[in-house]
Every structure is written in structure tokens, then in C-alpha cells.
Specification:
By secondary structure, the chain is of the alpha+beta class. Helices cover 23% and strands 39% of the residues. The protein has helices at 14-25, 63-71, 85-94, and strands at residues 3-10, 31-35, 40-47, 50-57, 74-81, 105-107, 111-116, 126-131. Bound molecules: zinc ion.
């Protein structure tokens, strides 16, 4: 894994949180993007060479809606940047880490992503992501 690519934060109201994080980080979100397949709207802030991703559910069955229902707003996942997310899935499985996704899928911000199951990673939802090769 190369670096912490971003930290994902589950929020109830992305407009209000965009304003809040703009003040907090003293920068505007560089992108807002809906990922319809995931039922989320996301926004991204650069912080040095890493990012904060805010996630708001767009439908009640979204993972973010369920997370907020159970735990409230807060840190949802930590994403590690890797060279090739598909290769990283193989490596993690060999290491005995349980993956939620056995294959990569397309996430926000032009990334190929997969999540490891928090029950095999000390309760922390871990995302691995690599740039989608054009
Ligand atoms: Zn993420």
C-alpha cells in the first residue's frame, strides 16, 4: 500500500458538511460526484497529498444510510492507495483478510476500489483503490 489516499466520513447533509469542512480545512471541495450504484453522493477535499471524502446516502438502503443509523455520523472508512487494486485483493486474501468485494468496482473520483470486511480488520472498514487506467 502506498499511502492513505483518503478518509471517508459519513454525513447526513452533504451541503451543510461541505460548508463545515470548507471552513475547517480552509479549502473548497474540488469535486462532488454521485455514485448511483452505491446510493451515495460524495465530495472530495484535498488536504496536502491526501483527501477527505464526505459521503451522504441518497437512498435508505445505501450502506452509508445503514452506517449512520447504527453508529451516527463519523469516520466510515480509510482508503489506501495501491498500484493495482485487483492485485491487492489477491494479496489481502492470501494474508487471510476477508474481502467484501472479491473483484474491484468503479468508485468515485475515477478509482477502481474494493473494501475489506471490518470484522477482519479490527473494526475498521478498509478500502483499497487505484486509478482507473484509461
Ligand atoms: Zn472512499
Amino acid at each position: 500500500m502506498n499511502k492513505i489516499e483518503h478518509i471517508g466520513i459519513a454525513v447526513k447533509d452533504i451541503e451543510a458538511s461541505n460548508l463545515l469542512f470548507s471552513k475547517l480545512l480552509n479549502t473548497q471541495p474540488y469535486k462532488t460526484e454521485e455514485v448511483e450504484s452505491e446510493g451515495v453522493i460524495t465530495s472530495f477535499f484535498m488536504v496536502g497529498d491526501t483527501k477527505i471524502e464526505l459521503l451522504q446516502a441518497t437512498k435508505p438502503e445505501s450502506a452509508i444510510a445503514k452506517f449512520i443509523e447504527k453508529k451516527g455520523e463519523g469516520i466510515h472508512h480509510i482508503a489506501f492507495g495501491v498500484d493495482d487494486a485487483a492485485e491487492e485483493i489477491k494479496r489481502l486474501k492470501i494474508e487471510g483478510i476477508e474481502m467484501i468485494h472479491e473483484a474491484t468496482k468503479n468508485g468515485a473520483d475515477n478509482k477502481s476500489i474494493a473494501f475489506a470486511h471490518p470484522k477482519s480488520t479490527n473494526g475498521v472498514l478498509i478500502e483499497v483503490c487505484s486509478d482507473i487506467k484509461q
